[in-house]
């Protein structure tokens, strides 16, 4: 197993680690060594869970007795070490690994099994997952808890009685990874209760896997007995929802039906206490019915007070500062002095009800397993009267509002005579309250990680903890594996916008439906479609299932047309029905009679959270809009007001975010989470289709995940998006099928952060051999950094080149050694380099920054010149064909236009916009000497003069004047129209005059910025950073104006034969944009064909009258 030395610690990793994985583990180890908190974002598919486990467990093993003693982890209670050596042995840190759901924890434990680490572990779960009692396992919620406790109290649960004996006979339990299913299997086979078995093991475990609520909720934390919280490490995986969960855990809602139920339960306790009075049972005799009568009277008074509050309006409700809750309750004599007694009385009442329910005595109790609302009231009072009187009340709002009871009446009519429900709420708007508890408890480190945490600054501010280590990792995939497009309009040309102004219009729903019909046809296998809300999902589907106005009787509905290509499944609002919907989607996806399935879902729903739609299960995800929360929702409105007020009050000494910033970020995180369903591992591929014109705006794209931004392309015309997406999946279909994830370790794309920007640029991608060897010189270059201190807080971190090559199982390589061995001409090691702070306020280290991307790009290009060059078949013979991009074939070598691109790259400062003054390093200066040798090895091109384009004038030229039109047509006729390039050896000094002349012509017809972009595209192809398909699309975009069409046609003279078909498709599509027939798309007007035909006939007649001379070679 490969071993890496990171931060002075040997980390065993089950696979050959890649850059982003090594950087991630190094950040984890740094945080643990320094005893600070970490905020780590790494996209799905980068192996973050495996990295987190290996780094954390390696650090724990490295903690020596001396270090543990210095951390205060001594078990010593005696003065004589010789008498009790085991007691004096330092206790190593305990790791608590929390995730949101049990299914996520199961995946984490599977990852643990793949490592070489075997700490003593246990997984904690609820009784619902672990109870094996014949009767109790059928119950749910608090009722199940009460029934279980009653049985254990009477020692009548045989499974719980066997736990102690099983523990004695199996002292090694937990040394091998076990999950909940394993514990349940042990219970069913050998008899011990899995729930209490895990409870017994957790106090001695090295690492504990548990759900979030065990850590966030104070009552649940109390059940974790035997854990020394000081110096403990807390890990929150999938932490993107942690902010909301923390706020909800510190809040409560008390609706009037619940309060009514509490009053009834108090009355029942009074009756039970009276009936027990005078009995011989001392415990029953000690219960005073007067206490329960006082409780009932207080609850009646509380109900009356809530109903007497005058609401400002039905929408606004009644809102007061958080401290008002104490004033409100004190009017009923509920204060700090009486709250404790009241809570004790409620505990006595619930115990009495539970005892009566378990015995069924006198017929007054409820069925066993019933949940009592008095528990909710007790929890609310504990929340209000915790700590000191003034603690955190400024982070709360008291809110009373009315709503209609949605339950049907006795006749089954929904909303008929619905009762008005008043709810008393105490809402927390500072999720940091829950996290601050960990700091007070002395926890050593809190590590939060997820694929969608950005923006990190606001996330850290909301949680109110100092995160000195931060990381935004790149994705492991390369550009050829993902298609990201903003589709701004539908097939009819109408803008796609799901804002409240347009989302309910029939025209919008019709166009969105036609858009999805086309994508259902183009995308193979599984398609996920996310809507901003259930309301929009249901209204669109209802519209699509109806025949639109004006349609004939036999016309197909949009729903029928979607079903023709994909079998649909709809995400249910009810959680209990979700598993059935998910199974239906899997079954339909496996149905060979159709071309796949489409899952219609909602952002923030179950489909968007934690489910794995890898490979065929999710080839594309469509996001139909931005899921902004309703601004009129009281909780959303008050949260925005709270943040705005906080910024105003603390603007001088505390950084914060405004309500509007929070509002936008919440929607963006939901989009990022939905997008994360489509790329699930290093060899996966898919498309992300953003069907809302608002995604084209800069502020929307800036909220996207950092790794995603460079791939986003905006399409103003639907046809362009459909053509590009079709080409993407055709390329994938032509490629060799991907290898299984089980046999291939995740890899990483090398990414760099340019100082003062947030742009992420993919420099290289690690692929399977032999391609990896072919691009090794790129990886070496990407390890060469210019290190620089910066005063601007980084928002990203780059992993440099190949941070490490996996060593043999017997060898151990340090990160600094690996980095140094892969760096070209650089003798610096990681330990000697200044590390740039990601949070300058706290001076933390988060990673590496390259000083300037332009400099690196120049070095990469010059390094290419130093590599052996094979004979060139054409100017663009470097290009990786769409069929070869993911195969084992070796890549082609640099092409002969490189020297011309290099010379053309030197644009004066007066021409170029905001050009950085980049100084080449000494190593780069030395590499210039090799240019001449390389240039002599490159072939030149001598294209044959072929026939001309037809002299038809595209319709787009109608807007030009006669002189301009004639000049354009003359240029097009003068340009050579070769079907294939003929290559000959360079004559004279190896000059490629045709290529030089073409570049000069391109420069003359493009602006400075456009020409610079053209050079970047060509350079990207030469450096193997861009496929031929991507290059042709980019060049076609630059040459899209009618007067530049001849440049695109002449570009074809330099395209090799094997890429000719691809070029012709791109060229044909561009001609179609200018008026020639294009791809037929569902939903587009059929009138376009006849219109184009008439235009062509008119233009052909004009061209025949043209006085221009024909080319004799035509």
UniProtKB/TrEMBL annotation:
Catalytic activity: ATP + H2O = ADP + phosphate + H(+)
Cellular compartments annotated: Nucleus
UniProt keyword terms in alphabetical order: 4Fe-4S, ATP-binding, DNA damage, DNA repair, DNA-binding, Helicase, Hydrolase, Iron, Iron-sulfur, Isomerase, Metal-binding, Nucleotide-binding, Nucleus, Zinc
Biased composition (Polar residues): 948-975
Gene3D superfamilies the record matches: 1.20.1160.20, P-loop containing nucleotide triphosphate hydrolases
Xref: SMART domains: DEXDc2, HELICc2
Pfam families according to UniProt: ARCH_RTEL1, DEAD_2, Helicase_C_2, HHD_RTEL1
The keyword Mitochondrion is annotated on this UniProt entry: no
GO biological process, alphabetically ordered: DNA repair
Cofactors required: Zn(2+)
Gene Ontology MF term list: 4 iron, 4 sulfur cluster binding; ATP binding; DNA binding; helicase activity; hydrolase activity; metal ion binding
Chain positions covered by the region annotation Disordered: 902-993, 1082-1114
Predominant localisation class: nucleus
PROSITE patterns: CARBOXYPEPT_ZN_2, HELICASE_ATP_BIND_2
Bias (Basic and acidic residues): 902-936
Gene Ontology, cellular component aspect: nucleus
Bias type Basic residues, positions: 1102-1114
Keyword Cell inner membrane: no
Ranges for domain Helicase ATP-binding: 7-307
Entry similarity comment: Belongs to the peptidase M14 family.
Name of the protein: Regulator of telomere elongation helicase 1 homolog
Taxonomic source organism: Riccia fluitans
């Amino acid at each position: 197993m490969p071993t890496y030395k990171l931060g002075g610690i040997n980390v065993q990793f089950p696979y050959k680690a890649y850059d982003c994985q090594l950087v991630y583990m190094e950040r984890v180890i740094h945080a643990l060594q320094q005893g600070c908190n970490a905020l780590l974002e790494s996209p799905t598919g980068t192996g973050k869970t495996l990295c987190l486990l290996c780094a954390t467990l390696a650090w724990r093993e490295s903690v020596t007795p001396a270090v543990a003693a210095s951390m205060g982890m001594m078990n010593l209670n005696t003065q004589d070490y010789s008498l009790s050596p085991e007691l004096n042995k330092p206790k190593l840190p305990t790791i608590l690994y929390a995730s949101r759901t049990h299914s996520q924890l199961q995946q984490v434990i599977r990852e643990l099994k793949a490592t070489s680490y075997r700490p003593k572990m246990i997984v904690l779960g609820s009784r619902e997952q672990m109870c094996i009692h014949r009767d109790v396992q059928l119950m749910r919620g608090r009722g199940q808890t009460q029934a279980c406790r009653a049985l254990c109290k009477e020692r009548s649960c045989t499974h719980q009685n066997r736990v102690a004996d099983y523990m004695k006979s199996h002292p090694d339990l937990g040394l091998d990874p076990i999950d909940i299913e394993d514990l349940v299997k042990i219970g069913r086979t050998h008899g011990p209760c899995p729930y209490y078995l895990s409870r017994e093991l957790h106090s001695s475990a090295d690492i504990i896997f548990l759900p979030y609520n065990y850590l966030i909720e104070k009552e649940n934390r109390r059940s974790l007995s035997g854990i020394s919280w000081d110096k403990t490490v807390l890990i929150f995986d999938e932490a993107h929802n942690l902010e909301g969960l923390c706020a909800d855990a510190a809040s409560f809602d008390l609706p009037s039906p619940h309060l009514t139920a509490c009053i009834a339960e108090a009355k029942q306790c009074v009756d039970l206490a009276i009936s027990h009075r005078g009995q011989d049972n001392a415990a029953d005799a000690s219960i005073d019915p007067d206490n329960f009568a006082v409780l009932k009277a207080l609850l009646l008074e509380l109900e009356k007070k809530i109903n007497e509050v005058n609401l400002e309006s039905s929408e606004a409700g009644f809102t007061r500062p958080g401290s008002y809750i104490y004033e409100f309750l004190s009017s009923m004599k509920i204060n700090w002095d009486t709250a404790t007694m009241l809570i004790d009385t409620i505990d006595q009442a619930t115990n009495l009800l539970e005892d009566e329910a378990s015995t069924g005595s006198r017929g007054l109790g409820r069925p066993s397993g019933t949940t009592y609302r008095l528990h909710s009231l007790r929890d609310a009072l504990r929340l209000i009267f915790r700590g000191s009187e003034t603690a955190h009340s400024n982070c709360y709002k008291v809110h009373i509002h009315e709503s209609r009871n949605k339950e049907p009446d006795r006749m089954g009519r929904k909303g008929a005579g619905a009762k008005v429900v008043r709810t008393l709420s105490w809402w927390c708007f500072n999720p940091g309250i829950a996290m601050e508890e960990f700091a007070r408890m002395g926890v050593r480190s809190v590590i939060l990680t997820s694929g969608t945490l950005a923006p990190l600054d606001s996330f850290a501010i909301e949680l109110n903890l100092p995160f000195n280590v931060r990381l935004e990792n790149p994705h492991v995939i390369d550009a050829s594996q993902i298609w990201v497009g903003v589709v701004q309009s539908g097939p009819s040309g109408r803008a796609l916008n799901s804002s409240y102004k347009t989302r309910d219009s029939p025209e919008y729903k019709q166009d969105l439906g036609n858009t999805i019909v086309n994508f259902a046809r183009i995308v193979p296998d599984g398609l996920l479609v996310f809507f901003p809300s259930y309301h929009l999902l249901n209204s669109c589907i209802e519209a699509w299932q109806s025949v639109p106005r004006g349609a004939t009787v036999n016309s197909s509905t949009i729903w029928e047309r979607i079903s023709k290509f994909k079998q649909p499944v709809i995400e249910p609002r009810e959680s209990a029905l979700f598993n059935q919907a998910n199974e239906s989607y899997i079954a339909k996806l496996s149905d060979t009679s159709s071309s796949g399935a489409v899952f219609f879902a909602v952002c923030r729903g179950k489909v968007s959270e934690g489910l794995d739609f890898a490979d065929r299960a999710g080839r594309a995800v469509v996001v139909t809009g931005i899921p902004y929360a309703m601004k009129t929702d009281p909780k959303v409105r008050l949260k925005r007001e709270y943040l705005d007020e906080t910024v105003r009050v603390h603007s001088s000494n505390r950084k914060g975010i405004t309500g509007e910033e929070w509002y936008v970020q919440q929607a963006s995180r939901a989009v990022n989470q939905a997008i994360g369903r489509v790329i699930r591992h290093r060899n996966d591929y898919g498309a992300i289709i953003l069907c809302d014109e608002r995604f084209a705006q800069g502020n929307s794209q800036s909220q996207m995940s950092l790794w995603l931004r460079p791939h986003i392309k905006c399409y103003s015309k639907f046809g362009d998006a459909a053509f590009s997406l079709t080409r993407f999946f055709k390329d994938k279909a032509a490629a060799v099928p991907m290898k299984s994830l089980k046999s291939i370790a995740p890899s990483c794309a090398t990414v760099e952060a340019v100082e003062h920007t947030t742009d992420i640029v993919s420099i290289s991608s690690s692929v399977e051999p032999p391609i990896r060897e072919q691009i090794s010189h790129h990886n070496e270059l990407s390890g060469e950094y210019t290190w620089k201190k910066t005063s601007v807080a980084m928002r990203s971190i780059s992993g440099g080149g190949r941070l490490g090559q996996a060593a043999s199982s017997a060898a151990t390589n340090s990160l600094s050694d690996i980095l140094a061995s892969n760096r070209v001409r650089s003798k610096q090691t990681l330990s000697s380099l200044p590390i740039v702070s990601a949070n300058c306020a706290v001076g933390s280290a988060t990673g590496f920054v390259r000083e300037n991307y332009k400099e690196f790009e120049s070095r990469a290009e010059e390094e290419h010149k130093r590599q052996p060059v094979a004979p060139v078949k054409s100017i663009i013979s470097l290009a990786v064909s769409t069929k070869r991009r993911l195969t084992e074939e070796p890549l082609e070598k640099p092409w002969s236009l490189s020297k011309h691109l290099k010379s053309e790259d030197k644009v004066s400062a007066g021409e170029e916009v905001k050009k950085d003054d980049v100084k080449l390093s000494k190593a780069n200066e030395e590499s210039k000497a090799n240019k001449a040798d390389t240039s002599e090895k490159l072939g030149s091109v001598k294209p044959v003069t072929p026939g001309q384009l037809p002299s038809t004038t595209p319709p787009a030229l109608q807007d030009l004047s006669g002189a301009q039109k004639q000049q354009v047509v003359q240029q097009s006729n003068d340009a050579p129209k070769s079907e294939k390039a003929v290559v000959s050896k360079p004559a004279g000094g190896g000059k490629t005059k045709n290529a030089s002349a073409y570049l000069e012509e391109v420069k003359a017809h493009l602006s400075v910025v456009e020409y610079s972009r053209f050079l970047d595209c060509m350079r990207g192809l030469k450096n193997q950073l861009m496929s031929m398909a991507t290059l042709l699309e980019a060049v076609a975009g630059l040459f899209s104006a009618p007067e530049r069409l001849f440049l695109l046609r002449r570009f074809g003279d330099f395209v090799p034969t094997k890429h000719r078909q691809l070029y012709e498709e791109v060229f044909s599509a561009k001609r179609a944009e200018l008026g020639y027939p294009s791809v037929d798309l569902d939903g587009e007007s059929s009138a376009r064909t006849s219109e184009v035909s008439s235009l062509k006939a008119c233009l052909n007649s004009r061209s025949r009258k043209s006085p221009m001379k024909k080319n004799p070679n035509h």
